[in-house]
Amino acid sequence: MRETKKMAVFHDLSGYGRCSLAVALPVIAAMGVQGCPIPTAVLSNHLGFPEWYMKDLTQELPSYIQTWKNLHLEFDGILIGYLGNVAQMDLVRDFVHSFRREKTKVYLDPVMGDHGRLYSSCNEAFCEEMRELLSLSDTIFPNLTEACFLTRTPYREKFSRKELVQMAEELLKMGPSCVVMSGIEEGNFLCNLVCERNSTVHWVKKKKSGQNRPGTGDLFSAIIAAGNLMNQENLSSVSLAAEFIRRAVKRSQEQNTALVEGVCFEKELSFLTRSLLAK
Description:
With about 280 residues, the chain is of the alpha/beta class. It has helices at about 20-30, 60-70, 85-100, 125-135, 145-150, 160-170, 215-230, 235-255, 270-275, and strands at about 5-15, 35-45, 55, 75-80, 105-110, 115, 115-120, 140, 180-185, 190-195, 200-205. α1 (about 20-30) links the parallel β1 (about 5-15) and β2.
């Protein structure tokens, strides 16, 4: 029997509110992969609440990672999520160079902004460093806002499909072999663009089942990365992630869950496991 695949996961940990490591690790496990967290910050709750406590872990990360180096740990995948500053990007680059083996896959969710705006922790220097991380990545998961900033494209709510493909192709030139772009709205539908180097462009389209909620992007990238490690094609993993999120958002709406609480995904985890076993 083959050993369970392992994926190192850079992300923050929010104690309350479903996002980041709190949602990524359960779905990675449901997909049959062991998630090994590298917390970049600890928060009492995510930033959508009126107040929060946050502890940046930049100073602790070198010792944390060095211990893994001393133990000669190995990983099949590396998933990079929330990074709080440029210094953490330097640590990530060193981690990739130190732990990447011939078959290790690197997945980057460039957490920078949404709805046309960068997060308060991001500036142009941060964006430039993120562009450099693209060159180390196999697959990236930008939303529309992040794709615009990474390609220096002025943001607007509506782009033609041709324009979006051109943006994805520009991202491919920066290094990754696959771009999965999310946050594309077409009427009552949410679309995801899957653009792979030297391959056909695909669109995954799902009807909206409720309002946008925190944490969906973290679920999305974690499911696709884990699916890829389990030898699913990117298109299949994107379709699975989109359907899982649609179901979880629908359940959240039916339960009248407050938006700030995120997505009620827990009771949908069996859907991921069944989908994996059906392959």
